[in-house]
Structures are given as C-alpha cells and as structure tokens.
C-alpha cells in the first residue's frame, strides 16, 4: 500500500507541476495524466485489476491532493460498476455517470470528456444505459471541474432493481469523502508551510499562539473526518457497498466530512491571506474541490437527518451512537 501511495503521489505531483499556471475555468481534462494512470493500471483498479476499496481510496485521495483533472472515481467505482450490473459494454477510456429523474440528469461530471452511463431513477424503477452523443448543457462546479445537464428518455434502457441506484449513490458519497480528505491534506500541508515561511513582526506566523491554535483546530477537524472516512472504507471493504453496515458508515462519514469542510477551508484561507483565493494557487484548487464535493451524492444536512431518523427509530439509540447498527 505504501508503494501504491508513493506511485500515485509521484504521478499526481508531476501532473500538477505540468499544469502550473495553466489552470482556468472550466478545467480541462488532463489527457496526459489519464494516459499515465491508464498505463500504470490505475484507471480501473476495481473493475479490471481485482483491487478493493482500500486500494482505490489511496488512488482517489492521492490524486485529490494534487487536484487531478481526471474522472477516476466516476470511471472505475461508478460507471464501470453500473455498466457491469446492467450487462452493458462500455468503451475504453474515461467514463462518467449521470444520475437523473424525470427525464433530466444534472451535475454530470466531465460530461463531454467521458462516455456517459445513465442511471435514471424514475417512479417505476431504475433504468440504466450508455448514452450516445447526448446534447449536454455544459457548466462547472466551484473548483472549475466540468459539470453538465442533459435530457433523456428511458426507451431502450435496461431496467434494474432500485437498490442498485441506492448503492450507486452510496458509492459516490464514499468516493467524495475520500477525495475531500485528500484535498484537506493538501490544504493543511500548504497552510503549515505558508505559516512556517511567512514572517510577520520578525517572527514566523507559526510562532504566534493564535496561529498555532488555528492550525491545531484545523488538524483536529481533518483527523475527525479521516476517522469517519476510514470507518466507511473498512465497512465497504468488509461488507460491500450494498450492506446495511456500509450504508451506516458512509452516512456517518458524509456527515463528519461535510461538517469539517467549512472550518478547514476557512482556517486555511484566513492563514494564507489574499494569496490563497487566487486560481493560480494550489490552495484554491484544494478548498474549492472540498466545498463542491461535499454537496455531491447527497448533502451533509440530508445525511445528518438520516442519522437522526435512525436514532429516533432504533430500539436503543445507543446502538446508533456507538456505530453498532442492528442489521
């Protein structure tokens, strides 16, 4: 696992350095990075390499640390898996997934750079299919990552159990938690380096007690979020994404990570000052990704309400509080 982490870090760092000064809104798909990852066998770890969530988590977090502009989670964990569930053949290269309802799919990641596998969650069930040359209304999230909207109809799509759609969302929620932790690590590393190097009144910023308290608070929020995400990774590894324990653990992680986004990103920008808000600075890429990803595949508030309902409905709410769901 250490070797995999080092490999991903080296690839991600070289990619970021190559893109330095070239970032723009919306971001452009990094074809060179994708080629390198594909040659290294990292684009389809789960669907083709017989790896598991632990290995994929290393890849997702490592690439997120370096603001990689490629849809790895969408290709491997989401669209590739969903296509296999529906018995669809998908092309080589990047894939993405569109989750729609009522004939419209919104916020589709990388919609013009990847083949789109649609999951239409309609009133009469889940319909899945590979879209060919759909008309996409292009946009982007706060970090500049391409997001798009498209219309569809369900003719010719494959019907699946709605539980597959639930698992798809759970997979996406877990992936975003892992990626946010990677973005958090980048933000903390940059903030520690900046406060150590920046001199104010004859002393490094990191020597001031208020700055030390802020850094400690930032690190504490990150480690709390990391612990919840590690729990979710262990649950999906041991039980699979379709299990109730995985559902519970991913819900907890989505709440913990989502609630950490505001304090972590706020402290990072406060300690960087004006420099941290420019698109050219790596901090901007990290914090804007964290803020954007926290609302994808369900909001923090939505998952918090879900936890609350479980506690109210449980025979013993203590089971919910100590991470011991009954099923």
What does this structure look like?
This protein has 2 domains: 2-160, no CATH class; 163-321, Butyryl-CoA Dehydrogenase, subunit A, domain 3, CATH 1.20.140.10. 57% of the residues lie in helices and 14% in strands. It has 11 helices and 9 strands. The protein has helices spanning 2-19, 31-39, 45-48, 53-65, 72-86, 162-197, 209-239, 244-272, 282-293, 300-313, 317-321, and strands at residues 95-101, 104-109, 115-122, 125-131, 136-140, 146-151, 158-160, 199-200, 203-204. Helix 6 (162-197) runs antiparallel to helix 7 and helix 6 packs antiparallel against helix 9.
Observed structural traits:
327 residues; alpha+beta; 2 domains; 7-stranded mixed sheet; two-stranded antiparallel sheet; 57% helix
Quick structural overview:
GO terms for molecular function: acyl-CoA dehydrogenase activity. The chain is built from eleven helices and nine strands.
């Amino acid at each position: 696992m250490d070797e995999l982490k080092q490999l991903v870090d080296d690839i991600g760092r070289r990619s970021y350095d190559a893109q330095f000064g070239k970032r723009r809104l919306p971001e452009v798909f990094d074809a060179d990075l994708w080629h390198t990852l594909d040659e290294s066998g990292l684009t389809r770890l789960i669907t083709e390499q017989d790896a598991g969530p632990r290995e994929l988590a290393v890849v997702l977090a490592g690439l997120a640390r370096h603001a990689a502009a490629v849809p790895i989670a969408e290709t491997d964990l989401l669209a590739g898996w969903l296509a296999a569930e529906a018995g669809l053949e998908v092309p080589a290269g990047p894939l993405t997934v569109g989750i729609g309802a009522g004939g419209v799919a919104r916020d589709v990641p990388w919609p013009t750079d990847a083949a789109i596998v649609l999951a239409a969650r309609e009133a009469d069930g889940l319909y899945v299919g590979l879209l060919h040359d759909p008309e996409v209304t292009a946009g982007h999230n706060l970090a500049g990552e391409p997001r798009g909207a498209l219309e569809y109809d369900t003719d010719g799509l494959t019907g699946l159990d709605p539980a597959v759609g639930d698992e798809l969302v759970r997979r996406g929620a877990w992936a975003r938690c892992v990626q946010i932790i990677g973005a958090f690590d980048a933000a903390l590393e940059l903030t520690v380096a900046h406060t150590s190097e920046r001199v104010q009144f004859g002393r490094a910023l990191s020597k001031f007690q208020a700055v030390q308290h802020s850094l400690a608070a930032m690190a504490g929020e990150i480690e709390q979020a990391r612990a919840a995400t590690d729990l979710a990774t262990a649950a999906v590894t041991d039980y699979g994404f379709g299990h109730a324990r995985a559902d519970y653990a991913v819900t907890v992680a989505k709440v913990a990570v989502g609630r950490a986004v505001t304090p972590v990103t706020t402290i990072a920008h406060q300690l960087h000052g004006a420099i941290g808000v420019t698109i050219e600075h790596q901090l901007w890429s990290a914090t804007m990704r964290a803020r954007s990803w926290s609302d994808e595949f369900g909001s923090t508030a939505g998952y918090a309400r879900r936890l609350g309902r479980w506690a109210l409905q449980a025979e013993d709410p203590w089971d919910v509080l100590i991470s011991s769901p009954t099923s």
